[in-house]
Design brief:
2 helices, about 90 residues
Length: about 90
């Protein structure tokens, strides 16, 4: 159940702060820009944490930095029409 939940959080996230742009498929695994997955009040977003660790497994502070200072991570799991990407198709 935990694996299926983390997979759903990654592939069909409902975490609004994950999307780079409104109505965009492109998302960041760091909602709020925190590698600690904390909101402004310091509370941990457990859905975001589960989503990231399914998506990438490891985390370091350099992963949340801006371009030129560290690494940037963006992902999309659906096409422009919102259909899931299918690796068997070209």
């Amino acid at each position: 159940m935990g694996d299926a939940t983390a997979r759903a959080l990654a592939y069909e996230t409902r975490i609004n702060d994950c999307h780079f742009y409104p109505n965009s498929a492109w998302l960041t695994p760091f909602p709020g820009g925190s590698y600690k997955f904390e909101d402004n009040g310091g509370a941990v977003n457990l859905n975001a944490k589960a989503m990231f660790f399914f998506y990438a497994t490891g985390v370091t502070p350099a992963m949340e930095k801006m371009v030129g200072e560290g690494s940037q991570y963006a992902g999309a799991f659906v096409d422009a029409k919102g259909n899931p990407l299918d690796g068997i198709k070209t």
